[in-house]
Design a protein that fits this description.
Layout (H helix, E strand, L loop, with lengths): L3 E5 L2 E5 L10 E5 L4 H6 L4 E5 L10 E5 L8 E10 L12 E8 L5 E6 L14 E4 H5 L6 E8 L7 E9 H4 L8 E3 L3 H6 L8 E11 L3 H6 L3 E9 L23 H13 L7 E7 L1 E3 L4 E3 L2 E2 L8 E3 H15 L1 E2 L6 H11 L7 E9 L6 H11 L4 E7 L6 H7 L6 E2 L2 E2 L5 E5 L10 H12 L3 H12 L22
Parallel strand pairs: 14-15, 14-21, 21-22, 22-25
Antiparallel strand pairs: 1-2, 2-3, 4-5, 6-9, 6-13, 7-8, 7-10, 10-11, 12-13, 15-18, 15-19, 16-17, 16-20, 23-24
GO molecular function: calcium-dependent phospholipid binding; metal ion binding
Keywords: Calcium, Metal-binding, Repeat
InterPro entries: C2_dom, C2_domain_sf, C2B_Copine, Copine, Copine_C, VWF_A, vWFA_dom_sf
Amino acid sequence: MYKELGIKNGERYDVDSKSPNLSKHDFLGQVFCTLGEIVGSQGSRLEKPIVGIPGRKCGTIILTAEELNCCRDAVLMQFCANKLDKKDFFGKSDPFLVFYRSNEDGSFTICHRTEVVKNTLNPVWQAFKISVRALCNGDYDRTIKVEVYDWDRDGSHDFIGEFTTSYRELSRGQSQFNVYEVVNPKKKGKKKKYINSGTVTLLSFLVETEVSFLDYIKGGTQINFTVAIDFTASNGNPAQPTSLHYMNPYQLNAYGMALKAVGEIVQDYDSDKMFPALGFGAKLPPDGRISHEFALNGNPQNPYCDGIEGVMEAYYRSLKSVQLYGPTNFAPVINHVARYASSVKDGSQYFVLLIVTDGVISDMAQTKESIVNASKLPMSIIIVGVGPAEFDAMVELDGDDVRVSSRGKYAERDIVQFVPFRDYIDRSGNHILSMARLAKDVLAEIPEQFLSYMRARGIKPSPAPPPYTPPTHVLQTQI
């Protein structure tokens, strides 16, 4: 007798009937994991024990992650046109193309617009790249509409005509099948002898498979996660409830929430789960020297902590032993991580530094110089601002609007992501929701920053290890 195995929300059931009610089926156990755990495992294959039935071994389950190939392809295309309608009174036309993806409800969404070619009825547009997802959402037979316009300075562009095609048609490349008549429906309805308003021809069509962040992780690239915590006096006395470092026995403080939210996701991409944890802006025992680069675990030769829980423990221990002081200097911890990143530039490792801070930065010039230098390395910096302070300097370091510069040199890449923690505090008091939102936005830029480094250095992902093949067993049947 054969039985179907069903899985829902990480729980396994032995399906004995076609009823959708899971209470009618036999519960075989459950598995809890994050998507990051699966993706971060070797070969994106995770094997976990099934639990949930006391005193009983429930076996194991193997989970694998795979990206859809059709959504990772990009197309490099080039078009030209011939004998387009003349629209300008004193000249010819200034034509451009607008591409539309059709949606399932029959509507259309703009997905690309070419540049304008001035004063010609026979334009040749530059080649452009567009993802297959944007062009047709991976559906090769979905309609693609192309409209041809004559550009006008005041924005009232004149419609020349349109045509439709599909990814499948375009994939034939330059041929008689990809010469399209540009038709203006209004002119066609008014003029009996109207044929078309010109033609558009596909000159080239090249498919490229875009490598992704996950390709590098599958190929063995390690993400090295380092934490740096602000121990300056502006945080307030940790023994007082008003302090941002207050050690509340019942819930995490803002620093703890930021560490846990970001760290628990990043740690899934690190095989040994050992993280350097640093502090800055404190006086250290026994001599009271001020340090902007000290190990939270008290061991400068080995500042590694075991997992995010180990980082949290070292953080709380440091609060009891060091004296909060100042100033707020970032450059030492950035340079600390940069020293490691500078020694591994082959794509096998990438470094992420999380800085959690409360205040106005004191060494802005030095920090900018450190960021400009680090932008050449396999490295990203996340800054989480806690407390009510103004964080104008952090926004400047983020570099989304204006790239960070120092001494006339601009950062090679945007490597800094800043978020103020107060924007993520859930009004209902749901800290889990706050942490999830924070982690999502804080980590949003890391994959693209990672890829920008790999592309700039021409580093391709290593091949993923071969898929797991379970051992074959000889089944013996006793008669």
